[in-house]
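Objective 1b: paired records.
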Amino acid sequence: MRGNVETRKPRKRENHENREGRRTSTAFLSTCHTAVGDEETPDEVIHLAAGLQFSGFKSVIGTLWEVDDSVTQHVVEAFYKNMFKDLENGGVMDCTKAAWALNHATHSVKTKVPLEQRMVFIHIGV
């Protein structure tokens, strides 16, 4: 029986690289329902945001329910403003700041965006 067992090497995790060949570490999924599973398979815990994290992204931002396009625009602009703040001074993007940047983004748009639309965004990962 031992001779019939197929030995497989573990798959190497793919590196997600951008055009310049740098590893990507953060994904922002601004469409609706990217961090929720399917109602027909409630036991499955994999959703689009988790799938991206499992495929190699260190930080993923997804949404739990429907979100208006105008809300998404405000939150994404504020997120990237916070996320890339260090790049202005010659720094590098740090994926460990994604949760912090999302928190600051949702706070900064609180006069423009109602609470139920701000809390739709979640961070998964580092």
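Objective 1b, second protein:
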Amino acid sequence: PIAFKSTVKPRTQYYFGQMSVICPNCTAMHWLAERSTIHPSTLVNPQFSTCCNRGDVLIPPMRALPPLLQALFYDRTSLAIHFRTHIRKYNSALAFVSLKYQADQRTQGGLQCFQVHGALYHMTGPLHHAMNMRPQFAQLFLYDP
């Protein structure tokens, strides 16, 4: 063929309407199509198991933000605007995950680039390491001997 022709079928787009149905237990927003099919759930009284498992999981309300974060999120200062503009970069830099991968051994010598063969994993762990274990992942960032 003259050019590459993909054999992958285009994805079908679905539209579920607005996410406007509120879970009666935890007030999470859902689409009506997400309602539980196992538990008694109707169009009039929808029940959801993907957020709080129909009220089985209770998440305490969030505490108020510390004053500095409150200012960064809501003030109109140049510093606060800069923070909100670049918040995704800050989040990525401070995500506290480590990568684990199986290196692609097919490329040896020459120009090297980061290549992954197989799956890419984001490893996280507890904030404190177990006794007699070396710190790893987020523990390295919060290490205090």
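The mean pLDDT is 79. The longest strand covers residues 116-123.
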